[in-house]
Design brief:
The protein contains 13 helices and five strands. It is α/β, with parallel strands linked by helices. It has a five-stranded parallel beta sheet with strand order 2-3-1-4-5, sandwiched between helices. α5 packs across α13. About 50% of the residues lie in helices and about 10% in strands.
Length: about 280
């Protein structure tokens, strides 16, 4: 089974903590290696896969006919930044754009909520990464009680239309939910507090969001169920293990690029008789 099929969001999705700790690719190996050796092997395999993706990205950038949008969502500390670092370090930055969506500014709030998002979608030949995305404009106001059920459904409709429009105009849309458990989040938040060099990563607002863990989990379940589509699929990646998470997403990225049937562009002229003096 291809990874794109294996990790596709199932019907009646339940984001329970137990599944966040799953390591299905390790199970495939039969568990023969010790944990430290397993992590090193996963890092090596991830580097190998991302190298293959980098080669395909060169074709994507050269041909300027296709575009890819990768959306990363997940609870705080689920590893969105880490996933970007692990998967795209080998890719030509000329054809890559990453955007992290924070809380909307006053200027952004004065417009429709998709206005700030649409400006960052990929152009021909580009891979664009959304670290958080337009989904935040449903998830957060829903949990905070700023929008009602009618508005939530309306925004899901907007998002479905938006992503369908992107697909119909040549964008391959890939949506990944990094599924972390509440216990693992506690350990990662504590690690940020314990290490002065990681204090910059700690935001007290993360603790406020953590208090609403169940509310966010249910909001994510509903958002994924409402917006999963063959042209804009959701993939659920267990994220308690950083190396295993990165390996799964590396597989998903490579298979997605392979499915785009990329090739080098034809030369602009007959080069067979060209000689360089």
């Amino acid at each position: 089974m291809k990874m794109l099929e294996r990790f596709r969001a199932p019907k009646n999705l339940v984001l329970d903590d137990a599944r966040a700790g799953d390591k299905p690719l390790r199970d495939d190996d039969g568990g023969k290696l010790k944990n430290g050796a397993i992590k090193e092997r996963e890092r090596a395999l991830t580097a190998e896969l991302t190298g293959q993706s980098a080669q395909l990205q060169e074709k994507l950038y050269a041909a300027r006919e296709h575009k890819l949008l990768l959306i990363l969502q997940g609870m705080d500390t689920s590893g969105k930044d880490g996933t970007v670092s692990a998967l795209f370090s080998q890719i030509n930055p000329m054809g890559l754009r990453a955007t992290a969506f924070a809380a909307p500014t006053v200027r952004e709030k004065s417009r429709d909520y998709l206005w700030r998002v649409h400006a960052h979608v990929p152009g021909n030949g580009e891979i664009a990464i959304f670290n958080r995305s337009h989904y935040e404009d449903v998830l957060v106001p829903r949990v905070l009680g700023d929008i009602d059920g009618k508005e939530i459904k309306r925004r899901y409709g907007h998002i479905r239309d938006f992503e369908r429009m992107l697909h119909e105009t040549g964008t391959t849309v890939m949506k990944v939910f990094l599924h972390i458990s509440k216990d693992e989040q506690r350990e990662r938040l504590q690690a940020r507090l314990d290490d002065p060099e990681k204090h910059w990563k700690f935001d007290p607002a993360d603790l406020t969001a953590r208090e609403k863990w169940d509310d966010y989990r249910h909001a994510y379940q509903d958002a994924i169920e409402a917006t999963d589509a063959d042209h804009a699929p959701w993939y659920i990646v267990p994220a308690d293990s950083k190396t295993h998470r990165n390996l799964i997403v590396a597989h998903l990225l490579l298979e997605t690029l392979q499915g785009m049937k990329l090739d080098w562009p034809a030369p602009k002229a007959d080069l067979s008789k060209v000689r360089i003096d």
